[in-house]
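Predict the 3D structure for this chain.
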Amino acid sequence: MYFFGLEFMKEIPFKEVLFHGLIRDAKGQKMSKSLNNGVDPIDMIEKYGSDSLRW
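Done. Predicted structure below.
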């Protein structure tokens, strides 16, 4: 989002940005295979199409 804003709007879209690799579910728990709260990519492709996972 930051880089798209910079590229297309020619200005910095945010003053501060935090990049991290942690993804949380709707309950705020860390998403992981061991907690079995991940999202099945096949279900997402069937529901939203394959482009939704690429972008």
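Helices lie at 2-9, 41-48, 51-54.
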